[in-house]
Protein backbone atom coordinates (compact mmCIF):
# COMPACT_ATOMS: atom_id res chain seq x y z
CA UNK A 1 0.00 0.00 0.00
CA UNK A 2 1.54 3.33 -1.01
CA UNK A 3 1.43 6.51 1.09
CA UNK A 4 -1.45 8.00 -0.84
CA UNK A 5 -3.63 4.92 -0.31
CA UNK A 6 -2.61 4.72 3.37
CA UNK A 7 -3.87 8.27 3.91
CA UNK A 8 -7.17 7.41 2.22
CA UNK A 9 -7.71 4.47 4.58
CA UNK A 10 -8.57 6.77 7.47
CA UNK A 11 -11.18 9.52 6.95
CA UNK A 12 -9.96 13.00 7.80
CA UNK A 13 -11.99 15.83 9.32
CA UNK A 14 -13.52 18.16 6.78
CA UNK A 15 -10.96 20.65 5.51
CA UNK A 16 -7.93 18.87 6.95
CA UNK A 17 -4.92 17.41 5.19
CA UNK A 18 -2.92 14.28 5.95
CA UNK A 19 0.11 14.55 8.27
CA UNK A 20 2.96 16.53 6.75
CA UNK A 21 0.73 17.99 4.03
CA UNK A 22 -0.43 21.19 5.72
CA UNK A 23 0.71 24.53 4.38
CA UNK A 24 3.45 25.94 6.62
CA UNK A 25 1.33 28.92 7.77
CA UNK A 26 -1.58 26.64 8.61
CA UNK A 27 0.65 24.19 10.49
CA UNK A 28 2.20 27.02 12.52
CA UNK A 29 -1.26 28.41 13.37
CA UNK A 30 -2.57 24.97 14.37
CA UNK A 31 0.53 24.23 16.45
CA UNK A 32 -0.04 27.51 18.27
CA UNK A 33 -3.76 26.80 18.83
CA UNK A 34 -3.60 23.14 19.80
CA UNK A 35 -2.09 23.28 23.32
CA UNK A 36 -4.84 25.61 24.62
CA UNK A 37 -7.57 23.45 23.11
CA UNK A 38 -5.90 20.28 24.43
CA UNK A 39 -5.66 21.84 27.89
CA UNK A 40 -9.40 22.50 27.80
CA UNK A 41 -10.51 19.14 26.36
CA UNK A 42 -7.86 16.79 27.75
CA UNK A 43 -8.07 14.31 24.86
CA UNK A 44 -5.80 14.58 21.81
CA UNK A 45 -8.12 13.26 19.07
CA UNK A 46 -11.14 15.48 19.73
CA UNK A 47 -8.91 18.49 20.41
CA UNK A 48 -7.13 17.95 17.08
CA UNK A 49 -10.43 17.58 15.21
CA UNK A 50 -11.84 20.71 16.82
CA UNK A 51 -9.07 22.81 15.26
CA UNK A 52 -9.27 21.04 11.89
CA UNK A 53 -6.46 18.49 12.02
CA UNK A 54 -5.98 14.86 13.03
CA UNK A 55 -4.59 12.82 15.88
CA UNK A 56 -1.90 11.51 13.52
CA UNK A 57 -0.79 15.03 12.62
CA UNK A 58 -0.50 15.98 16.29
CA UNK A 59 1.46 12.80 17.01
CA UNK A 60 3.82 13.54 14.11
CA UNK A 61 4.36 17.11 15.31
CA UNK A 62 5.03 15.93 18.86
CA UNK A 63 7.61 13.44 17.61
CA UNK A 64 9.37 15.94 15.35
CA UNK A 65 9.07 19.22 17.29
CA UNK A 66 10.40 19.20 20.88
CA UNK A 67 8.97 22.67 21.66
CA UNK A 68 5.51 21.63 20.49
CA UNK A 69 5.79 18.41 22.48
CA UNK A 70 6.72 20.38 25.63
CA UNK A 71 3.76 22.72 25.08
CA UNK A 72 1.49 19.67 24.81
CA UNK A 73 2.92 18.16 27.99
CA UNK A 74 2.36 21.43 29.88
CA UNK A 75 -1.23 21.57 28.55
CA UNK A 76 -1.81 17.96 29.62
CA UNK A 77 -0.44 18.66 33.11
CA UNK A 78 -2.69 21.73 33.50
CA UNK A 79 -5.70 19.67 32.39
CA UNK A 80 -4.87 16.96 34.93
CA UNK A 81 -4.43 19.54 37.70
CA UNK A 82 -7.80 21.10 36.88
CA UNK A 83 -9.38 17.63 36.84
CA UNK A 84 -7.83 16.87 40.23
CA UNK A 85 -9.21 20.09 41.74
CA UNK A 86 -12.70 19.35 40.42
CA UNK A 87 -12.52 15.71 41.52
CA UNK A 88 -11.34 16.60 45.01
CA UNK A 89 -14.24 19.04 45.24
CA UNK A 90 -16.70 16.32 44.23
CA UNK A 91 -15.13 13.81 46.62
CA UNK A 92 -15.00 15.98 49.71
CA UNK A 93 -17.37 18.92 49.28
CA UNK A 94 -19.86 16.91 47.30
CA UNK A 95 -22.02 17.94 44.43
CA UNK A 96 -25.41 19.54 44.56
CA UNK A 97 -28.33 17.68 43.11
CA UNK A 98 -31.99 18.61 42.92
CA UNK A 99 -34.45 17.12 45.37
CA UNK A 100 -37.84 16.09 44.02
CA UNK A 101 -41.16 15.66 45.75
CA UNK A 102 -43.24 12.49 45.46
CA UNK A 103 -44.85 13.68 42.25
CA UNK A 104 -41.41 14.13 40.67
CA UNK A 105 -41.47 17.93 40.77
CA UNK A 106 -38.27 19.70 41.85
CA UNK A 107 -38.64 21.33 45.26
CA UNK A 108 -35.92 23.86 44.58
CA UNK A 109 -33.87 22.52 47.49
CA UNK A 110 -30.56 20.81 46.96
CA UNK A 111 -28.59 18.39 49.00
CA UNK A 112 -24.90 17.63 48.78
CA UNK A 113 -23.72 14.14 47.84
CA UNK A 114 -20.14 13.20 48.56
CA UNK A 115 -18.41 10.50 46.60
CA UNK A 116 -17.07 7.66 48.73
CA UNK A 117 -15.55 6.05 45.63
CA UNK A 118 -13.54 9.18 44.76
CA UNK A 119 -12.39 9.53 48.35
CA UNK A 120 -11.17 5.92 48.36
CA UNK A 121 -9.23 6.53 45.14
CA UNK A 122 -7.51 9.51 46.76
CA UNK A 123 -6.70 7.53 49.89
CA UNK A 124 -5.19 4.75 47.77
CA UNK A 125 -3.10 7.30 45.85
CA UNK A 126 -1.99 9.35 48.85
CA UNK A 127 -1.51 6.53 51.37
CA UNK A 128 -0.81 3.40 49.33
CA UNK A 129 1.02 1.79 52.24
CA UNK A 130 -2.31 1.72 54.10
CA UNK A 131 -5.02 1.58 51.45
CA UNK A 132 -3.65 -0.14 48.36
CA UNK A 133 -5.06 -3.54 47.54
CA UNK A 134 -2.64 -6.32 48.29
CA UNK A 135 -2.57 -9.71 46.74
CA UNK A 136 -0.34 -12.41 48.16
CA UNK A 137 0.40 -15.29 45.84
CA UNK A 138 1.37 -18.56 47.47
CA UNK A 139 3.12 -21.21 45.38
CA UNK A 140 0.81 -24.12 44.72
CA UNK A 141 -2.29 -22.27 45.97
CA UNK A 142 -5.37 -22.45 43.79
CA UNK A 143 -7.22 -19.27 42.89
CA UNK A 144 -9.67 -18.41 45.63
CA UNK A 145 -7.90 -20.47 48.32
CA UNK A 146 -7.66 -18.61 51.61
CA UNK A 147 -4.15 -17.53 52.58
CA UNK A 148 -2.28 -19.82 54.95
CA UNK A 149 -2.69 -18.94 58.63
CA UNK A 150 -0.10 -16.73 60.30
CA UNK A 151 1.18 -18.81 63.22
CA UNK A 152 3.69 -16.23 64.45
CA UNK A 153 1.34 -14.93 67.14
CA UNK A 154 0.66 -18.34 68.73
CA UNK A 155 2.43 -19.56 71.86
CA UNK A 156 4.26 -22.89 71.97
CA UNK A 157 1.39 -24.39 73.97
CA UNK A 158 -1.13 -23.18 71.39
CA UNK A 159 0.97 -24.63 68.55
CA UNK A 160 1.17 -28.01 70.35
CA UNK A 161 -2.60 -27.99 70.91
CA UNK A 162 -3.16 -27.13 67.28
CA UNK A 163 -0.92 -30.02 66.16
CA UNK A 164 -2.76 -32.37 68.56
CA UNK A 165 -6.18 -31.34 67.22
CA UNK A 166 -5.07 -31.63 63.60
CA UNK A 167 -3.69 -35.12 64.19
CA UNK A 168 -6.88 -36.17 65.96
CA UNK A 169 -9.04 -34.75 63.15
CA UNK A 170 -7.00 -36.64 60.56
CA UNK A 171 -7.15 -39.90 62.51
CA UNK A 172 -3.39 -39.93 63.11
CA UNK A 173 -1.60 -40.79 66.33
CA UNK A 174 -1.90 -37.82 68.64
CA UNK A 175 1.45 -36.61 70.02
CA UNK A 176 1.64 -37.02 73.80
CA UNK A 177 -1.24 -39.46 73.98
CA UNK A 178 -0.89 -43.20 74.22
CA UNK A 179 -3.05 -45.29 72.01
CA UNK A 180 -5.59 -47.30 73.97
CA UNK A 181 -6.51 -50.56 72.38
CA UNK A 182 -10.16 -51.25 72.36
CA UNK A 183 -11.23 -54.67 73.56
CA UNK A 184 -12.69 -56.75 70.81
CA UNK A 185 -16.36 -57.23 71.04
CA UNK A 186 -17.65 -60.70 71.24
CA UNK A 187 -18.29 -63.64 73.57
CA UNK A 188 -14.78 -63.62 75.08
CA UNK A 189 -15.05 -60.08 76.38
CA UNK A 190 -16.82 -60.09 79.52
Protein model, in words:
The chain has 190 residues and is mostly helical. Among the domains are: 9-78; 94-135, no CATH class. It is 52% helix and 7% strand. The protein has 8 helices and 2 strands. The chain has helices at residues 3-8, 24-41, 44-50, 55-64, 66-93, 116-126, 128-131, 156-170, and strands at residues 95-100, 106-113. It has a two-stranded antiparallel sheet. A hairpin with a 5-residue loop joins strand 1 and strand 2 (106-113). Helix 4 (55-64) crosses helix 5. The chain is elongated. The N and C termini lie far apart (101 Å). Mean pLDDT is 79; it is low at 1-9.
SSE inventory with pairings:
Elements lengths: L2 H6 L15 H18 L2 H7 L4 H10 L1 H28 L1 E6 L5 E8 L2 H11 L1 H4 L24 H15 L20
Antiparallel strand pairs: 1-2
Helix pairs in contact: 2-3, 2-5, 4-5, 5-6
Q: Order of strands in the sheet with the most strands?
A: 1-2
Give the overall average pLDDT.
Answer: 79
Tally of strands: 2
Order of helices and strands: HHHHHEEHHH
Structure classification: mainly alpha
Q: Provide the β-strand percentage band.
A: 5-15%
What's the Cα radius of gyration?
35 Å
Low-confidence stretches: 1-9
User: What's the quaternary structure here?
Assistant: single chain
Morphology = elongated
Gap between N and C termini:
101 Å
Q: Major sheet: size, sense and barrel closure? A: 2 strands, antiparallel
Percent helix:
40-55%
Number of helices: 8
Amino acid sequence: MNEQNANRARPLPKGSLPPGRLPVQTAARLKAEFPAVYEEMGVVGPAAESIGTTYDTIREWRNSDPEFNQACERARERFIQRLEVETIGDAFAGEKSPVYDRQGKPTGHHRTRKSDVLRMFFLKAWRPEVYKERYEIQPGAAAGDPPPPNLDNLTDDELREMARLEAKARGLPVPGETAVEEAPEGPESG
